[in-house]
Every structure is written in C-alpha cells, then in structure tokens.
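Give me structure tokens for this 251-residue protein.
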Amino acid sequence: MLKTYIVIPTYNEAENIPLIAEALFGLGIRDLNLLIVDDNSPDGTGQIAESLKRTYGSELQVLHREGKKGLGTAYLEGFQLSLDSGAEAIVQMDADFSHNPQKVIELLDNLDQAGMVIGSRYIEGGRLDEGWAAWRKSLSSFGNIYARVILGMPILDVTGGFRAWRRETLLGIPLERVKSQGYAFQVEMAYLAYLKGYLMKEIPIYFADRERGDSKMSLNIQLEAAKRVWSILIEYRDLRKKRHKNYIPMP
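Here you go.
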C-alpha cells in the first residue's frame, strides 16, 4: 500500500470536517494521512480540525492560511506539503460528502494502472444527484463538454475534483505554472497531465449534493472558469506540441 495523503481544502466546513475525518480514517487504509487546508474559516473549521489531532495524532495535519486565497492555491500548497512529507499517492476531494469516502479505496486501487485516476460523473455508471434541477445538470454537463472540446481532451469529467495522483505524476507536472482557481483549476491540472503524457483513468462515481453547510459555487465562478479555459489553451501551446494520447477509459 502506498503512503497516502488526502488533501481537503476547507472554508466554513465546521459541521463536515469531524464527520469526513471519521469516515476516511474508518476506511482502514494503511499509512493514511489527512491534510486539511483551511482558509481561516470564520466558522472555526481550522480550530475544529486542530482539535481532531487529539483523536488521530500525527496522521492528521492542518495547514492554516491567512484569508480566503482560493481552491487552486489551497490544493497546490497541500500537494507540495504532501510531497515533502513523502506521499506516494495523493487524493483530492471535498469535505461536504459530495464525494463518497468509500470511493477513495477504488481510486487508490486503480493507481497501479494510471498516473492519475478521476472520479467521473460522466462515464457509464457515473451520476449526478437526482435532486439537482435540470438546468443545473445541463450547466454542469455543458461545462465539461465546453472545456473538453476547446482543449481537445478525451477525459469525460474535466471539472470534477475527486481525483487520485501518483507522486511521480505531480512531480512531473509544472505546478509552478498553474494559475487557475475553482473549476478551472481542475481543468488545468487534468490538461497538464494529458499534455505530459501520463496515463489517466476514469472510474464512475455518484456525485451527491451537500447535506450540511453552504455551496461555494456561483454563476460568477462558472463564468470565470469558462473564460479561463481559453487562457489555458494559449499558455500551454509549448507543451501541446509534445502531447501524448495515453488516456485509457474504464473497462
């Protein structure tokens, strides 16, 4: 079993963080570490996460950041700290249970076949929450198709944030060039893995709506991501010339 770090960025997730920690450590994964990256949440998420160290000891770490700096930089700092700590596999996921903790095991199991494994809502077997309105499902689907077509990626879920990475993949990606936040961060990271020729694999997931706390997504964030896709296309034209089509879909 690989030494695994699960990176979870948080902002006002006080209700969810004790529950997600309990669920993840309850999976029984050997050599599992949880890294909470908190953006100075006003609801005390960071302090609650610190208190969990009494239960989980050094296997739980908290990275406190000053102010709300954004999802992209939270993940980048979390990835770097995990790599510096010797992580061989890194999982990224949300704190609000929209990503089923049980699926972490399947993500990790598939890392022996790929450099990056994506929990996908849009391959066969993947689903969105049944309670979502039709317009919301359509907007999510359109966002994926939009980014895929512009960037020429074969991945079906380019905006999803439930992923597992091999250490070698993250070390081989020029993380210092990543500028995106929100949905666009997920797109940019997947695009870099694709351009660098790493094997990528999608497994189906059910994406549930959150039960506790407030959603961070807004129309402005989605519009900004749509504009950012074009910048990503331009910024990585040097790597695009060398890309390899090594994507393998879920059997």
